[in-house]
């Protein structure tokens, strides 16, 4: 199958220019590159996202844009940074799953420490979702690592003791409950550190959405039990709390994205006011945004939009993945491609499944580019 076009960095030209300029001076290239990243890093980006790209090579001093508190936590807990690195890959993958059929598809940029590029500079619904899902991802990664004994500073939740009751009757607390409260505590300290240095509308928005993401993980904690008794009668139960699959958190935050609330900063700069004066309710558990989203139809370097040219669309769908919506009315191209799938699978004793490779020809539809050539795209 043909997949959507791989996004390339919007800052390739500026990065290349920086390297060329640096080569004229008698300095090592790497420090100059790091310095340029720091100089041109917008305040609102979360450069800790780049930890996911660094993986096991995480070196706290080489992550551009970390504030002092984040750098101190990184140096103090390198094992946690490794967990956050793995978690970053998961939440980015989840973001791309949730928006795979939308004009903005959570595209990441190669070799770009901001990960998502300039699209995160706007205080939009998309930024609200990314901050929430990334904060949730840190909670999930740290909590899981604690329960699996991968971290020196934490382990299972040892506070749950004694008896409790649910709809099935009494049970004893035991086993290894996921220590989600510790995950939330660390995520708040690490992720919120940058935003707490400034008090403007964007910082308040990020802090709010970060909290929504953290609490979303806790919302889906589930009770898991082991039965004890004669012949599995389950006359006695030992239970513990465990995190649900991260997909549930992603689905929940995706719904919150759909119902995100536009807000404005209040006069004393301490909180939000809902833009819609007729709004009834609370924003406590809702994602909030300050600015409308950019037009993701056309490639726009200033806004960070990659456009939808070349994206695969569904000709028969009337939803967001349909060619009419995805291609923004520009039309689409169709090509016939061979697709190989597994078929006629049979179970072979014991214990394997054998399948044949079947070929069929399918039509793949991709969005036409904007009528203007690339050099005339909005800059």
UniProtKB/TrEMBL annotation:
GO terms for cellular component: extracellular space. Signal peptide: none annotated. One of its GO terms (biological process) is animal organ development. InterPro entries: Wnt, Wnt2, Wnt_C, Wnt_CS. It is found in: Secreted, Extracellular space, Extracellular matrix. SMART domains: WNT1. The keyword Disulfide bond applies. The keyword Glycoprotein applies. Its main location: secreted. Keywords: Developmental protein, Disulfide bond, Extracellular matrix, Glycoprotein, Lipoprotein, Secreted, Signal, Wnt signaling pathway. Belongs to the Wnt family. Ligand for members of the frizzled family of seven transmembrane receptors. This is Protein Wnt. The lineage of its organism: Eukaryota, Metazoa, Chordata, Craniata, Vertebrata.
